Description:
The chain is built from two helices and four strands, in the order βαβββα. It has helices at 14-34, 70-86, and strands spanning 7-11, 42-46, 58-60, 63-65.
Amino acid sequence: MNQSGKTITICMGSSCYARGNVYNIEIIQSWLRQHGLEAEIEVVGTLCEGQCRQGPIVKIGAAVYQGVTASSISEILAHEFLEVHHG
């Protein structure tokens, strides 16, 4: 189990993948490396989450983020992990 108890689940269904999760996964992995969290946070892909109209979908723990973009993902990660990690 990771320290925070959180897992990042990235929808890799065709709609979410094409709408930005192809880039979001790279940004997430890079962000975790930069903050020394790559060993503590599990990142997994999943098939379609059935929320295609709201995609790209990224889940962090129980939280579901819709319409995740390359510009919003860093803010989401900071909110989820820096508060937990440093708090």
